[in-house]
Amino acid sequence: MGGGVRRLLLFIILLLALGVRLRGITNPLLDDQGWRQADTASMSLHMLGHLTDIPNVFLPQLNYDGVTPQRVELEFPFLPYLLAWTWTLFGWADIWGRLWSVLLSLITVGGVYYLGRKMFTDRVGLLAAIIYALMPLSIYYGRVVMPEPMAQAWSIWALAMIWRWRNSPKDRGLWKIGLLMAGAILAKLPQLMLFPVALLLGFYPLNHKRLGQLVRFSLIVLIPPMVYYLWVHFNVSPSSQFVSGIMAGNMADTRNLDWNLLSRNIQRGFTLSAFLLSVVGLCRLIFSRSPARIALLVWGGIGVLYMVVVCVRIPLDYYLVPILPLVALLSAYALDGIDFQPSSVIVILFLVLINRDSYAFLTLKYHWNEEFLSQAKWIKNHTSASSVLVLSDPPPMTFYYANRVGFRLTAIEDEDIPSIILHQFPGDFFVHLPQSVHNELFWEKVRNSYPEVGPGVFDLKGTLEK
Fold first, then answer.
1. Which of 181, 303, 372, 440 could form an S-S bond across to 158 if both were Cys, CB 3.0 to 4.6 Å?
2. What residues does 70 pair with on adjacent strands?
């Protein structure tokens, strides 16, 4: 395949990837995973005006569970920091976060192409790129204001670069690759699963002359995440230690295993056809002589272990995102067995067609409730900036759009007495969120006790006239 044709095909794939990721680009951060998207954007808001206050600006802060923004133990806020600078230069708008994520997703598509091309053939690279671009999970999480797009872009290019370095090793290039991999792990901790893959791609079989390089590379990759996560862990309250809490709680809990939901997430996110093709590619790889064989087989083993240990315990589909590049590469390697190039294109189009149910399921992910936004805007326009809110339910998106802080209730029962519950919080307003479960008796008590001054907004201190 000529270089001009190859570049043209890659350009078409990138245009296709861009097109499918522009769906819902102007949506507020209230569609599926609105909670995590609003959290990411909230961190950016708290950085405004403090962008040069290093390192404290990198301690993530969220709006809830206190009368002031609370420091929390989360991943390194690369995307919030980038978004805060963008807002500083161009003004606040949700679309900036989505555009950054789309750009990072396209960079990932390019990385999948480059890795497939260098490990196998140009054809595998192009097939892997289009498969990755069209997987439903890749489409949706390629335009969300969350850490996933950045972590994906950095990790796949770290793997691509260390594979290139393997063939022309230079010390000065290795530290850049190590920092890129460290950045991916800092951006999203599950990317740590790719560290052994990077070692195998760069150093297997191990030559004793490269032992020093391996040690230096490992230190460059691992020390920054260790230092950062320890620093954040000891600078937040125990109730805000989310990363270590997830690791300690969910990993040890075997009561919440949900194999059926994991299976549905795989079918809807990867499509069943791509997943089965990746199994075929893995079988083909076992009998191949590719120098990347051991690294990819280990990557496959780590992926299976990751699904069994993590994804079945935390059955949220975005935890499957780190496995997408591997599925794309193995699926492309399986399709590479078809000799005639147009046949491969036909096969891919056929796979998209028979998996249309998975793409139809994506439609639900773009839905969002307008009432959330209108209620939050009312609060922002009609209450003091120092007001403290108490939300009727855990979803915290109202804090972000109202630009307020406060507390959340986890559960409400009909027999609960509002004054007793709300007395626990130093709140100014009680907010009945749009999706809240209708406990009519409880809300009747609320209406009898507090004036409703706005849409679902109750004045707890009588400071605002209706």
1. 181
2. 62
